[in-house]
Amino acid sequence: MDGQAEMLNLKREVGLVGAVSLIGGTMIGSGIFMSPQTVLSSIGSPGASLLVWACCGVLVILASFCYAELGTVIQESGGEYIYILRTAGPVVAFMLIFSSVLFVRPAGIAGVSLSFAQYVVAPFYPDCAAPLLLVKCVAAGSIVVLATVNCLNVRFSMSIQVFFMVVKVLALAAIIIGGLVMLVRGHTENFEDSFENTNLAINSIGIAFYQGLWSYDGWNNLNYVTEELKRPEVNLPRAVVIAISLVTGLYLLVNVSYLTVMTPTELMSSNAVAVTWGNKVLGSWGWIMSVAAALSAFGSLNGTFFSGGRVCFVAAREGHMPDILAMAHIHRLTPSPALIFTTIVSLLVLIPGDFQSIVNYFSFTAWFFYGTTLSGLLYLKIKKPELHRPYRVPIIVPILVLIAAVFLVLAPIIDNPQIEYLYVTLFIVSGAIVYIPFIHYKLCPGLLTKLTVFLQLFLEVAPAEKNL
């Protein structure tokens, strides 16, 4: 076992097609079927809502270019965590992983699983809201199924990702074509005075962006699995450009279709906007859109799981999480302990959570650390210009995205502060307090060592090396 442990690492199984599917397939999930009504209700007008969607796309494209440079300079898995560790140091990196493992990633998984469940049960409750307990049970079931798939085989989970990427692009294409047909027939009344009643309050703009950016979440997924990507210096920038450009175009056209078919009032009052669209355009076949939205969310959930487990795995490998989480299955070469741990925490977050709250607090925390990561890129550009950079962006790009990240963090609390954001901030800062005794001074109970040995034997896992 000792000899095997020295050789054990995660294999480079992800090619360009898989990389595009991992980014695009995770981005196109629940958001485009769940968030349009909240974006519209927050910003107040159809024209402004389309502008928000376009700005979200531009912001994500610019941010992804910055991450592409970081991923080719620091060719390690782990995304923001590993970049902050290499630039800002272990304390800030631990604050990120503490928040990410215990809230951000599980919240993302819980949010997507809830939207998947809502679309699965929607056809059975056409005239009323589905029971919350039923929705959460279906969501929990989807989490467990995909956790099992990701623990068993990397190639199989990537095959699922590619398949669902194709399904969801076809579903969005159907919505776009349906909307274009309606536009050609002269249904343009919802775009008259399209900027009337626009809400320009800072809090409203921030919430609208949170909901829009939730739909783009997953743009940075490839940076979490850099060590499993074939030719990362080439495929990382290519996959980013292809996937995010495709998704941005699809999102804008889908929102135009929604607003062509539905009045703003109908859109804002809908619990499942794709189902409402399907009922109005497809009539008795409207249930097809519910199935398509559910499949889309399922594929997105798979991508979130695939990358989320890797963050936990990399942090444990760096000594910031228990050792058992840095191990991989000796035969399947999957980080199964990290995936199992992520599953357990996600199920716990799912119990009290509701979709809108999860999205807002997830986005607040995520963009705080995105901003920190971009500060690290600026540091590397200014202080270490000699580093080999197979791909680079002009320095103005990370500066612009950093300004946007600061706005997104401050916007919800400037003119309408809520105590929940203070709780989230205190939770992030508490990571530094946990770091001192357990990481810096390595206060580790003996029971944890015995548990690690037991789990290592029970799960058939061993320590894994970096795949560089």
Topology (elements, then pairings):
Elements: H1 2-7, H2 16-27, H3 31-34, H4 36-43, H5 46-73, H6 80-87, H7 90-121, H8 132-152, H9 154-184, H10 202-216, H11 232-261, H12 264-269, H13 273-281, H14 287-317, E1 327-329, H15 336-350, H16 355-383, H17 396-414, H18 419-440, H19 446-459, E2 461-463
Antiparallel strand pairs: 1-2
Helix pairs in contact: 2-9, 2-11, 2-14, 4-5, 4-10, 5-10, 5-11, 5-17, 6-7, 6-16, 7-8, 7-14, 7-15, 7-16, 7-18, 8-14, 8-15, 9-11, 9-14, 10-16, 10-17, 13-14, 14-15, 16-17
Low-confidence sequence ranges: 1-6
Mean pLDDT: 85
- Biggest sheet strand order reads 1-2
Order of helices and strands: HHHHHHHHHHHHHHEHHHHHE
Specify the biggest β-sheet. 2 strands, antiparallel
> Could you tell me the number of beta strands?
2
- Separate helix tally: 19
What is the radius of gyration? Answer: 22 Å
How large is the share of residues in beta strands?
A: under 5%
Classify the helix fraction into a percent range.
Answer: over 70%
Silhouette: globular
Query: What's the end-to-end separation, in Å?
Result: 22 Å
Which structural class is indicated by helix and strand composition? mainly alpha
